[in-house]
Amino acid sequence: MQDEIPLTDGWTLRHGAAELPARVPGCVHTDLMAAGVIPDPFLSRAEDEVAWVGRADWRYDTVVPPRETPHERTDLVFDGLDTVAEISLGGAAVGRTRNMHRGHRFDVTGLLDAASGTALSVRFDSAYTEAEAVRDRLGERPNAYPEPFQYIRKMACSFGWDWGPTLVTAGMWKPVRLVHWSTARLADVRPLVTVDGAGAGRVEARFEVLRTESGADRTLTAELRVGGPEAPGASGTPGAPGASATVEASVRFDGTHATVTAEVPDAALWWPRGYGEQPLYDCELTLSDENGGTLDRWSRRIGFRTVALDTSPDELGSGFTLVVNGERIFARGVNWIPDDVFPSRITPERYRTRLTQAREAGVDLVRVWGGGIYEADAFYDVCDELGLLVWQDFPFACAAYPEEQPLRSEVEAEARENVVRLMPHPSLVLWNGNNENLWGFRDWDWEEPLAGDSWGEGYYLGLLPRVVAETDPTRPYWPGSPWSGSWDHHPNDRRHGTSHSWEVWNRTDYTDYLLEVPRFAAEFGWQAPPAYATLRRALPGETLAPDSPGMLHHQKAADGNGKLDRGLERHFAPPGNFDRWHYLTQVNQARAIATGVEHWRAHWPACAGTVVWQLNDCWPVTSWAAIDGDGRLKPLYFELRRVYADRLLTVQLRDGAPAVVAVNQSAEAWRTSVRLRRMSADGRTLAGTRLDLGAAARTVAEAAVPAELVPDAGSGKEYLVADADADADAGDAERGLRALHFPVRDREFAYPAPRFDVELARRGDAVEVTVTARTLLRDLLLQADRLGPEATADRGLLTLLPGERATIAVRGWDPGDAPDTDGAPAVEAVRAALFAVEPR
Asked: Residue spans with biased composition (Low complexity) (predicted)?
């Protein structure tokens, strides 16, 4: 059996004449921070102070301890080097690398000193040096940002983005190890997992072996074992193994390639969240010699399911619908960026936390965006367990990418390696060629400056689909996002394939989402600043203002604050201070996303998915994220939880008149009585009735609002309330589903001054804050982190009618003694942290 030795200890980083302790896995920035050489670049404007780090060259050193081994071969394995590195062992050059997205393995047999330690050095050249040299050799290509990220196979957003800092990293960002082996080892294993029409599962394990000289002529045996299933429990952690028997198959072979196949009768199907369970089977391939001795072993968890992409033409154009196990799915998605600009800091626990948050918000699809990385195995493991579908971009984004050497061979090598690595995961359902590059060629004035030079089309329409077809034919491939299916249509044609909607944020208003029904909305978003406590931590000592120096530094979008302010002006009177600005930008972000998602979900199956930009942040920044860079939930997160619920009640315009729409994505039929009320701003019910709505499983039903219930837009004082699945007379806003329709914008509506009562009560580890409305309270928000930086609330924006009450659970805050006493400091603190829409 192979013998593996991790090389994690004893590393140093050379900084000038000094040597600093280093962590592996890690990166230069984190090592320099740990040594106190540089400040935390996330704070204030320290990002600018550390820009020199990305321009410098670095060297990591360690000593490999002496160790005897009976094995024939020793390999030095780097799972991830960022990015341009030269490796030497015992003073001898071992190899050079230039790709962050792949691993590297070097034969170092005979280079280790068995009697004394052997020096190991890894020298990193600045990624800028490499990228600029390639640019000079191949010629300038256009991109969306003034950095040379497309000339090097490295995480593009290291060079900055419209939500990310420019922190160009270097280092061993994944594990390093020595591997001793003899006779033969498994070079790669590709399990093609399929299900036939009768429900039988099939695992066809195609594999390659490498042999030593002594093992070249030996007959070897590969045994495939498929055991399980184990079904993840409600928390997403694996449960007890199921009753299915273990299936085994084996093959004897010569040469370097072979296939072994196992048939699994009555395979338990893996389903996306909300459609069924997520049973996972242990899959193990063992390589043995002719004497039965184990040489190598590969093991993963797999799931049995089918996946297809339906892009059939229809009367509307051509669709884009994911079909899993024959079930057509409206994808409730989020875009994922690297959760830290220093990816080596992202732990399996952090992946689980963030992805569990996505699942709890009703998300069933996560798109791994193309300006980042192929995420660590732990990311996909958690998605397998939680039933989150994964759309995986290949790492190309917002730029024209040269197709010549040295890049082309690196692109093919990384694609093959990562397709092989990730294909066991049942959660992975789509390979996507790039982010916005096909669109960029057509619309971003690339064609003329390129003058016929390569720009990536050959990757997206040639190389990558060939790699996927040869390596992982069980999954669909799509050339890019947006992409309409062919050059016969504009790449961002809403009637075909996937589309991105950025004109709304950049130039118009979020109400313009209502003007179109894309077949699949793969990107759309609206900005808001991070949580208040996140700003306080990131900008210590700063007097916060929308245009204060730190706020502007942590706003990376072009004219970002201008777009925020113009978005507010369309709906609200100018905020009088920072706190109101901060609150209203959060409201606008949540309203914008809800407007798009509700509208598009109401047009299922013409629209088959929404993928919100974006779930997460990589540092504290004003951005489109629902979860900020410190992991705090913005109001948008809670709004996602509402609009991505299996059952959604919404009011939509049909032929200019309001209609009540019941969107039912659950597996059961939904029949409900909807109470409709035409209300006045002062709290009076002007008219009311009930409508019966019935939506079959996975369908949408709607009913027109009777004319006498339609609010008078001219008065600026009337609105519509629709309540379902609740007794609206109970005065408790905790139950049921509610939809609101205001016929005019907020600045035109006659809101009363907000009045409400607050009560506090301790319940276990939480403080329950009960708010009773004395007037209409539109978009009431408790910013719990204003009570204390660790405080969290379990609710986001709430709209209460006069007399209604809602209870918000706050954790991580101690209100002191007698917190419910009138006038107590705790009550006043809560009142100061509560916000609502105010009169114009």
From this structure: 227-246
The amino acid at residue 436 is: E
Question: Can you list the residues of the chain whose pLDDT is less than 70?
Answer: 231-244, 727-735, 818-819, 821-823
Q: 286 and 212, same structural domain?
A: yes
User: Is 112 in the same domain as 232?
Assistant: no
What average pLDDT does the structure give for the chain? Answer: 95
* Sheet bearing 798-800, strands edge to edge: 798-800, 777-782, 834-835
Residues 93, 44 share a domain: yes
Determine the angle formed by the axes of helices 377-386 and 348-360, rounding to 10 degrees: 30
**Residues with Cβ < 8 Å from 79, sequence gap 6 or more?**
103, 174, 175, 176, 177
Helices vs. strands in the chain: H and E counts, helices first: 18, 47
487 and 352 share a domain?
Answer: yes
Domain boundary among 643, 658, 677: 643
- Indicate whether 307 belongs to any domain: no
Continuous H helices in 676-765: none
Confirm whether pTM is higher than 0.90: yes
The C-alpha atoms of residue 483 and residue 312 are separated, in whole angstroms, by 14
Residue 534 lies in a domain: yes
pLDDT tens for each residue of 66-107: 988 999 999 999 999 999 999 999 999 999 999 999 999 999
User: What is the count of structural domains for the chain?
Assistant: 5
Please state the φ and ψ torsions of residue 775, each to the nearest 5 degrees.
-140, 175
> How much is the pLDDT for 228?
80
Answer whether 502's CB lies under 8 Å from 335's CB. Answer: no
pLDDT in tens, 208-253: 999 999 999 999 999 999 998 776 644 445 443 444 579 999 999 9
**Cβ contacts of 92 within 8 Å, gap of 6 or more:** 111
Element (H, E) at 138: helix 127-138
Residue 703 inside a domain? The answer is yes
Verify that 684 and 597 share a domain, yes or no.
no
Instruction: Give me the percent of the chain exceeding a pLDDT of 90.
Output: 93
User: How confident is the model at residue 236, as a pLDDT?
Assistant: 47
Whether omega for the bond prior to residue 605 falls within 30 degrees of 0, making it cis, is yes
Domain termination site, one of 150, 180, 210: 180
730 shares its domain with 760: no
Backbone angles phi, psi at 580, to 5 degrees: -70, -40
User: b/e string for 534-561 if b means 16 or more Cβ within 10 A?
Assistant: bbbbbbeeeebebeeebbebbbbbeebb
- Number of neighbouring beta carbons within 10 Å of residue 451: 7
589 is a domain residue: yes
pLDDT at 198: 87
Amino acid at 200: A
C-beta of residue 769 within 8 angstroms of C-beta of residue 680:
no
pLDDT at 537: 98
Supply the range of the domain harboring residue 813: 756-835
Catalytic residue among 385, 436, 457, 523: 436
Residues 131 and 153 sit within 8 Å (Cβ to Cβ) = no
Any catalytic annotation for residue 436? yes
Whether 511 and 570 share a structural domain: yes
Percent helix, percent strand, percent coil in the chain, to nearest 5: 20, 35, 45
Spatial distance between the Cα atoms of 809 and 807, rounded to a whole number of angstroms = 7
How does DSSP classify residue 697?
T
Tell me, yes or no, whether 56 and 102 share the same domain. yes
Of the candidates 194, 199, 251, the one whose C-alpha atom is nearest the C-alpha of residue 225 is: 251
pLDDT tens, residue by residue, 103-138: 999 999 999 988 899 999 999 999 999 999 999 999
Q: Could you tell me which of 646, 579, 637, 648 has the C-alpha nearest to residue 793?
A: 637
For residue 798, give the CATH number of its domain: 2.60.40
Q: Can you list the pairs that 573-582 forms with residues at least 24 positions away whose Cβ atoms lie under 8 Å?
A: 573/747, 573/840, 578/544, 578/545, 578/546, 579/835, 580/835, 581/546, 582/529, 582/532, 582/544
Nearest to 427 by CA among 391, 373, 474: 391
